[in-house]
Structures are given as structure tokens and as C-alpha cells.
């Protein structure tokens, strides 16, 4: 489960509260026609939107491409990905109002590696 804490070392107030804008990195399998992959594992890391400076956030829409190997993400492949939205109520995992874009999409294990 998510620790509900912002990952940034510089965050002045690391608790992620309901309704705050956040970046969430998670792991899941991509299925065609679903904008958000399924959660095969769990939330990997979360930040306040303003605290996130790790990688450039380039929005992607279906069909997604791996930012590492540039190959298209095939049906059922396991990926890491980020979504941006607002922190949901306690007990819910996926951010709300997250729109139609994914960020930082990459294979958990790129094909051919
Ligand atoms: Zn923060
Ligand atoms: Zn890849």
C-alpha cells in the first residue's frame, strides 16, 4: 500500500492529503482500450505535483511507447507508468481527475534485454 508520503527529500510537508495534486508512479499491465493499466503490483512512489523533478514528464496517449527502448507497449506487457491527478480518499489508490495521459511509460523489462 501507499505510504501516503511525498517522496521528495525537500518536501516541506510530506503528507499527501486528499484533493492535493500528485504524481503517482505505479506498476501494471497494459491492456488495449484501457487508458490506465491494471495494477499488477502496487503504487511504487508518490509525490506532490510541485515536488516532482526526477524526469521530464512527457504525456503519452494510446498507443503507448516505452520511453527506454522506444518499442510500442504490447497488449498485456508489464510496465511502470506515472499518472497525475488528485489524491483520492483514504482506501482508494488511483488519483482522481487524472485525464487521458500517462507519463514515464516503460517496460518493467524491455524485450530483448
Ligand atoms: Zn511534496
Ligand atoms: Zn522498453
Any key phrases for this structure?
binds zinc ion; 113 residues; mainly beta; single chain; 4 strands
Brief sketch in words of this structure:
The protein has 113 residues and is mainly β. It is 0% helix and 30% strand.
What's the arrangement of secondary structure elements?
Elements: E1 21-29, E2 38-48, E3 78-86, E4 103-107
Antiparallel strand pairs: 1-2, 1-3, 3-4
The protein binds zinc ion (2 copies).
Question: Could you characterize the architecture of this molecule?
Answer:
It is a single chain. The protein contains no helices and four strands. By secondary structure, it is mainly β. It has one domain. The mean pLDDT is 88. One zinc ion is lined by residues 66, 68-69, 71, 106-107, 110.
How many discrete structural domains?
1
Quick one: how many beta strands? 4
Q: Beta-strand percentage?
A: 25-35%
Largest sheet: spatial strand order: 2-1-3-4
